[in-house]
TrEMBL record:
PROSITE patterns xref list: ABC_TRANSPORTER_1 (PS00211), ABC_TRANSPORTER_2 (PS50893), MOP (PS51866)
A molecular function (GO) term: molybdate ion transmembrane transporter activity
Protein name stated in the entry: Molybdate transport system ATP-binding protein
ABC transporter domain location: 13-247
Annotated Gene Ontology cellular component terms: membrane
Domain of life: Bacteria
Annotated Mop domain residues: 306-373
UniProt keyword annotations, A-Z: ATP-binding, Cell inner membrane, Cell membrane, Membrane, Molybdenum, Nucleotide-binding, Translocase, Transport
Naturally occurring in which organism (per UniProt): Thiobaca trueperi
Length: 373
């Protein structure tokens, strides 16, 4: 029979949301946010350098205190007008740009260090799972200087998780790694994403990282949250600076529908259509996230009968927006599902020549599809 206190805790946990409201005024910068974020999955705090991402993370960690701030995490108040939990009382894990491991302790002792100081440490079986998930079992006897940057970061992530935090904060955990190491560690982060039940706030200014890892995005600009929402929705909004970028892209959640061994192709299905990709070694039914750059999509009014392009999707124009360099950004609904969007970036000249307008049916020719996991 649960005690009253346990019943209150479980009732509070069901609220499943993070609410963060903060205002900070520095002489040359102000941050003003009021955010409701999902209580699970990875939320990216995404924006250019100086947009306020780290400041927001520090406020959430309790490393800074501002008056009138409010923070609740899955129903537990961490800060309001009466309460301010100091950092050491907040059940959180914090992973920084550079793994801050103790140099005189090996990886195992580094993991144990935090665990000894909390009443909520993982049991040995759960810790073994985390060690396996991050692929660090063979590194446990090594000291930090005997590890690569990526390996150190994996140990730092395991250490953050070993205290069973209610929230994991990651501040550009890949920023200090070179490209090769980044690509080494990304699959581990993707595995974490699938395995973790706690919410993760992930600071990044890299669209590529965010496209791979995030479920929800907070797009930060000059201390404000310009947009908050599911990643596919935010990425395909043509009114945001993100879409005007050369890297603008749409994300589509897909399921592996079948393989064609003869032609070394894999067919993936999404709500409203399907795409052919180079052969993927993933089982039918597995989910993958596809990223399609706006610059890789061209449009035709009639279905091209003789094209080398594998993926030609019937679509309908949802929105046209003229952007710089005499180009037009077009948002397309693909198939029957209005929630699945593609972006196409074409010249104004072509747009006028084809007489494109909102509501018009077209065929989207997709030159390249990148897989995000
Ligand atoms: N203690 C401080 N006093 C005054 N200004 C500060 C202070 N801390 C941060 N700032 C300013 O606040 C702004 C936001 O900084 P913040 O580190 O939050 O940005 P960021 O988006 O995390 O940037 P980056 O991606 O470069 O880490 C910057 O203009 C910074 O100079």
């Amino acid at each position: 029979m649960p005690t009253n206190q346990q019943a209150q805790v479980s009732a509070a946990i069901e609220t499943d949301q993070i609410h963060a409201r903060f205002r900070v005024d520095y002489p040359d910068f102000s941050l003003d946010v009021d955010l409701d974020l999902p209580g699970q999955g990875v939320t990216a705090l995404f924006g250019h350098s100086g947009s306020g991402k780290t400041t927001l993370l520090r406020l959430i960690a309790g490393l800074m205190r501002v008056p009138n701030g409010h923070l609740s995490v899955n129903g537990r108040i961490w800060q309001d007008s009466e309460t301010f939990l100091p950092t050491h009382q907040r059940p959180l894990g914090y992973v920084f740009q550079e793994a801050s491991l103790f140099p005189h302790l090996n990886a195992r002792r580094n993991l144990e260090y935090g665990m000894k100081r909390t009443a909520n440490a993982m049991d040995p079986a759960a810790l073994r799972d985390v060690i396996d998930l991050l692929g660090i079992a063979h590194l446990l006897d090594r000291r930090p200087h005997q590890l690569s940057g990526g390996e150190r970061q994996r140990v730092a992530i395991a250490r953050a998780l070993a205290v069973q935090p209610a929230l994991l904060l990651m501040d550009e955990p890949l920023a200090a790694l070179d490209l090769k190491r980044k690509y080494e560690i990304l699959p581990y982060l993707e595995r974490l994403h699938d395995a973790l039940e706690i919410p993760v706030l992930y600071v990044s200014h890299s669209p590529d990282e965010v496209a791979r890892l995030a479920d929800t995005v907070v797009l930060m600009e000059q201390g404000r949250a310009l947009a908050v929402g599911p990643i596919a929705e935010v990425f395909s909004r043509t009114d945001l600076p993100l879409a005007q970028d050369q890297d603008a892209s749409a994300l589509i959640e897909c399921t592996i529908a079948g393989h064609d061994d003869r032609d070394a192709l894999t067919r993936v299905a999404f709500a409203g259509g399907c795409l052919w990709l180079g052969r993927l070694e993933r089982p039918v039914g597995a989910t993958v996230r596809a990223r399609i750059h706006a610059r890789d999509v061209s449009l035709a009014l009639v279905e091209p009968a003789s094209s080398t392009i594998l993926n030609i999707l019937p679509a309908r124009i949802q929105e046209l927006r003229e952007i710089e360099q005499a180009q037009v950004l077009i948002r397309l609904a693909v198939g029957d599902d209005p929630a699945t969007s593609l972006l196409a970036r074409i010249t104004r000249h072509s747009c006028v020549r084809l007489g494109l307008q909102v509501g018009q049916p077209v065929f989207a020719q997709v030159k390249t599809v990148a897989l995000m996991d």
